[in-house]
Write a structure and sequence with these properties.
- The mean pLDDT is 77.
- The protein contains six helices and twelve strands.
- 44% of the residues lie in helices and 24% in strands.
- The termini are far apart.
- With 271 residues, it is an alpha/beta fold.
- The protein is rod-shaped and about 135 Å long.
Length: 271
Amino acid sequence: MKKTIWSSKARLKNNKKSSIKTNRKQNRSKQLEQLKNNLLVSSNILLFIAVIFTVSFFAIRFADNYLSVSSITFNHSTKILSDEIRDSVQLNGDTLFFMDTDAIEKQLLNNPEVESVRVNKQWPNKLKIDLEIYTAMLQIKKDSREYFINSKGKQINDYDSNATMPLLYLSQETNINDLNPKINIDFINIIDFINEYDLNKKMKMTTWNYVYNKNTGISLHINERQRIILGNSDQLEFKLINLQKVFSTIMLEKIDFKEIDLRYNSKIVLR
């Protein structure tokens, strides 16, 4: 009886050992399988990265070879375009795909000669820039130097040497640095108004020179010793009406004068 009980216990113990061995084998098998799966996933990831790298490399090479901007076409409203405007377009080897056209437009509009601009991409590697260039509205002369002013009162280069425009001289006391866009626009307005008013016909004068003095403003120089001081454009029509009246009296009575000063509106000073 005792032998039978011991035999049963031995079998149970052997079965337990066998079960433990089986479980260990299964665990090892699962671990090996998991390791294989991990290696496979890692291999796939590395392969994917390699493919992406290769595609990116050739895409960059393609972009460099075929999409880098190779030419810029300027369409503009003048016969000649300054090198300053051309050189202001900085491409830095950019491709057309990544080209910031808004930044180029802002860059060009910083130039006082450019009135408006539109930048268009022409695939695969060309850039087209449509420009409207300011024309000179006024020529200012100081000794032998000439300056050209646009409608905004800013100094620009003159591209059309055949264009006719008003000429303003600066006095000996005045330099170009004494001017600013506001003053320049005032010059343009005064000269335009005088031309529309047809002052030379109404006063029966052939011609005069416009001269600006930083102390007295703009004047009409009839000759080397006589001038009419307007000052600025304030109440300009009223000044011109008064000028006609006093000038008629001067001519009629043959009064000699050096200056007719109209800066004080209703009060006319004769010197």
